[in-house]
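Human:
Take a look at this sequence-structure pair and walk me through the tokens.
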Amino acid sequence: MALVKARLVNVSVDPEQSVDVLFNPTEYGIDRGARYAELTVPGLKTPIMQFVRGEAKTLTVELFLDGTNRRQPVDDDLRTLRRFVRIDSELHAPPVCRFEWGEIAFQGVVTTFKERFQLFAEDGKLLRVRVTLTLKSYKSAEVQLRELRRQSPDRTRVRVLREGETLAQLAADAYGDPRLWRVIAEANDIDRPRFVPVGTPLRLPSL
């Protein structure tokens, strides 16, 4: 198994804070998806599929920490890796990180972190560990709104309000920011946003 060097960078807290890892470049996976809602219309055999939003891309990689050549334990590097799934005291959430290997740079948050300890020194210190990471792509609401304004066609979409939905949820789905519910309210002449009947078609204007 050929291994090459890669690294994981702490984007949220300190971009200089990183850990070098070994990575098997023969295989890695990126999953993509989209979410649709089924709208039932009386008289039709099948429901209408309404696009809701794109799903975050996910990257799954298997990383290696190996101190056998240097006969040095890998405990410090492992502790640094574990920071990516621990809640940061200032962020109140785990940090955003970036996986870098060659021209690949995948930015996201770690959703799965699995450790397998494989080799130990005579004194019991850890020399080799295999870490499987799953990262979900992450972009801030500000970045997504800038991209939305730049890329979205100048046309209005229509969504039907479903049971349990609010204008804030529609704004989060459409624009990436629930605080933009007023845009939807103004576009539909809604004075009482908490009392919109289920099944009401709502115009979602482009920003």
